[in-house]
Amino acid sequence: MQRFAFVIHPIDVRCDVAKKYPIARYLPETVIAAGIRRLSPSVVSHITGIRSESTGEEAEGWFIGCPLTPRQLLALPHEVVYKKLIQCGKIAEDLGAGIMGLGALTSVAGDGGITVAENLNIAVTTGNSYTVATAVEGAKRGAEMMGTPIAEATVAVVGAAGSIGRTCAILLAREARNIVLVGRNAAKLEPLADELRAMQQAEVRVTDNIAEGLRDADLIVTVTSAVDAIIEPEHLRRGAVVCDVARPRDVSVRVAKERKDVLVIEGGVVGVPGDADFHFNFGFPPKTAYACMSETILLALDGRYESFTLGKEVSVAQAEETQRLADKHGFRLAGFRSFEAAVTDETIAAVRKAAAIPPK
Question: The pTM is what?
């Protein structure tokens, strides 16, 4: 039996905290945030039933709650955040886990897990390598469903200066016609743009203006560490596909309400092999997980207790290796989700109709 742990934290502060402390529904978020910061990390649930399709190896794990909000993870002094995450790691060690994954913004806070790993006796991974692999696979599949093959698409990558965005851009540039790199600082995108141009596959441009960058995009992969939504209804063209890999989401809920002619999918919804039971509702269907969670699990199933993805960089080789391990053990892209709802064939047909795309 292989063992792992995975760190989670509140995303929607009021709703998530209210699951355990109902009074939180009636308190200002500032009060909730101040209160949970005083709490210690704790075990949230025991994960059971995971079994490799090829080797028969089994794994169990634990969700460990880090009591910090998205804003706190990004704004508090690094030492404060590291202390909480190291406490999570010590719990994981005591449980017998051989590897701990960092979920959501715990993976981008500070130095991306390096300091945490240096202070623990178990491996640590951010899950970003398999997140890249599934984001690219999901984005290409979504574009196909909307009638725009990747080879004919203009692709925008929002947050392209970050580790996940950069590698997504490299992988997508192998097949796309045009690539637009979008970030807060256009100058920081130029080295990546030069690298993509050297591939001589796609036309490449950069911008720090999100409206300009998304205006003509058929396919958008967005993966920033922004606390608030940055993509609004007016930014998107009719028939666009948006693969939102970020948590918290980059895409505003207004898009779901106002733009029935665009398809928004969540990157990295993965089917986990075996009879997986997370004993915790994080908004996904049974037996499915985020890609970052799945990277931690597939490394454990393979007995690879190593700090596989750390820091701010994710290489193409790392993304490809996690895809190989996923194929080996039976992890698969499990359809799509959009704002907590399943994306069905009927959903796709309705979006195509609203966008005036002929039915298949």
Answer: 0.88
